[in-house]
Design goal:
Layout lengths: L1 E7 L5 E7 L2 H23 L3 H5 L7 H7 L2 H19 L4 H28 L2 H7 L12 H19 L5 H18 L11 H27 L8 H20 L5 H6 L5 H5 L1 H26 L2 H22 L7 H21 L5
Antiparallel strand pairs: 1-2
Length: 354
Amino acid sequence: AMAMAMATGRGGKATTRVVRLPMRVAVRREARREEERSKGRRDVAGASPSEASGGGSTCGWRTWLAFTRPHTMVGTAVSVASVSCMVAGDAKAHACIAMLAQAWVSALLMNVAIVGINQVHDVDVDKINKPYLPLANGSMDVEEAKKVAWTCAVGSLWIGAWPWSTPLMITLMGSLALGVLYSVDVKGMRWKKHPALAATCIFAVRAVLVQLGFSLHAQLATGQAMRITRPIALAVGFMAVYSLVIAFFKDIPDVRGDEKNTIRTLSVRVGPRRVFYVCMMMLTGVYAAAIGYSLLACDGNFRIASSLAHVLFLAMLWVRSKEVILDSSSSVYSFYMFIWKLFYAEYLVLPFLR
C-alpha cells in the first residue's frame, strides 16, 4: 500500500515522494471507508420516509408518480374514455360528463390500488428488475404503500357505488380481486408465478372487464339499453390479443430477477427470444385483421382513416423492433413501453371501427 506525499526540496521546489504504509493500516483505512459508504447507502435506501424526517412522509411528487406506474394510468384513462365515448351516442352532454367522471376517477383509483399491491409484494424482485421503483429503492415505506393502496381501493368502490352502477361495480371488484390473486404471495395466489394464470389476469382485466364493463356502464348511465354492439365486440377481440402480448412481453426484461426469485414466467421457461418473436407475430396478425376489417366492414371515410392508421401502426412496430437488443434489459423495456404507446394509440382509432 502506498500514499503520495508532497515535500519541499532544495531550491524551494515541490517534490513528490511515495510513502509506503504498512499493509494492515492500508487495509483498515479501506475497510473503514467501505463501511462509511455502506452506511451512507443504507441511510438513503433503507430508512423509511418517516424515520428520515422524524415523523411524517417525505415522499415527493416524483415518488408518488413512480408509485402509480404512469404508463398503466395513461392506458386506463385512454381506454375508459375510448370505450365510453364509443357507445355514448347522442346522449346529453351533462349525462356523458357525469358518466365519464365516475368511470374515470374510480378506474384510476383502482389502478393505483392494484399496482400498489403488486409493488408491496414484489419488493425483493423489484430490487433486481426495477430498482427505480419507490419501494425497491427505499424512497417509500412499505406500510405507507399499503395504506395508500387500500385507501385507493376503498375510494374507488365508494365512487363506483354512488350512484350505483352494476357494470361498473363488477368491473372494479373483479379487477381488484384479480389484482390480489396476481400479486399476493399466499397459498393459492401469486398467479404471476404461473404464465397461464398471469396471462389470464391481464387478459380478463384489459380485454374483458374494461371493454364490457365501462361500455355497459356508459349505456346505463346515459339511459340506453345495455347490449353488446359490434364495436364493443371488436374492441374485446382486438384488446384480447393485445393484452396477451403485454402479459407475455412484460416479463422479458425481468428474466434475471424472476429466475433468482423462482418466478417461472414464460420468458424464464422458453427464453426471451422465443417470447419476443411470438409477440411480434401476434401483433402482426391482429393489425392485419384490423386492416382487413377496416377495408371490408367500415363505412365511408372511416374505412380509409382506420386502414391507414393500422398500416402505420404495423409499420412503426416492425421498424422499431429492428432496434431491439434482446440481451439488453433496458433495450427490451424501451420496446415494451413502445408497445404500450401503440396500445394507447389503438384506443384513439377503435371508436371509428364501425
